[in-house]
Amino acid sequence: MAVRSVFDSGVLRSEFEKAGINTHFIPLIWKHVLQNPNSEFNEVPSLPSAAYPILNSKFKFSTSTAHSVLESLDNVTTKLLIKLQNGSFVEAVIMRYDSRLGTCAGKPRSGGPRATLCISSQVGCKMGCTFCATGSMGFKSNLSSGEIVEQLVHASRFCHIRNIVFMGMGEPMNNYTSLVEAIRIMTGFPFQQSPKRITVSTVGIIHAIKKFHDDLPSVNLAVSLHAPRQDIRCQIMPAARAFPLEKLMDALRVYQKNSQQKIFIEYIMLDGVNDGEQHAHQLGQLLEMLQVVVNLIPFNPIGSLSDFSTSTDKRVVSFQKILRGSYNIRTTIRKQMGQDISGACGQLVVNLPVKGPLESSGLLTDIEDLRV
Ligand code: SF4
User: Fold this and answer.
1) Is 203 a pocket residue for ligand 1 (Cβ < 6 Å)?
2) In a domain, 188, yes or no
């Protein structure tokens, strides 16, 4: 068996249980690892003696390395290229934003500097969305819970991470067990991320949505709807054939009834495909009975990988106006970030080499809240 990440909690827990070691020691080990990344398991204090040989022979502080870092020209987006122990690469993107910028109802906004980390859950993705660079890679492998958590560990070296979104490479709900395990680690000691500031984005894996709230209460759900009709969804998201829109909407209604949480709807704006006034009305009618926030995402060109074009600003704004004005649906337009380093939505695909070793990147200070 390959050496596992110490954050692969299921494996670590079962090794401890087999040896009769109390699993309550596990978070204390994690605390030591986070505070002393260059130490060794033998230096973790006060563990039962049987724990040390298990840790030393079967686990590592980190199975992945932050191979390189790329910063956007505007300095608000940082992309980490992370090398896994099997030689594959995934990307994690830090987005920074000052939520005090601008005004709200004529008054200064509250808040402050924010950092959002966009995490990958798989190497590649099998959903094949035609507007997405990751989809063009095909599916390579699932990440373990430890490999998912390690992205947070690497990113935290740059700045304090306030929000986490599972919107990087992969469909998180297709790696459900690791997803749940990773989020439970992130929200427990010593990470203590707020579940309310974690968002999992899915193309609409219905059977996973049905159990999501029970497994991860308070964690936010975002659905990449991208079209108000099944035929258009199938055209741009082939995987939608397995998840009919009507059944997806039923699952969302049940989810909202049980969770009482609003749902984030992601909608990529593709010129001439899904960005017309009629689409805005169809979307409004589809969502009217739910509590949602719609996030309109201007399409990021992915070179020769796709034939789509970006909707004009005028069309995006008009789409937003219809949802707001006719259906009273809170609708935001996602700010474009990190396009120059392919760190924007739908652009995550591993490109080697990238410039700049991690050591030369320096610490970052400002930050962003992606969601609204
Ligand atoms: S948009 Fe998400 S689900 Fe679709 S191919 Fe890309 S990574 Fe996979």
Assistant:
1) yes
2) yes
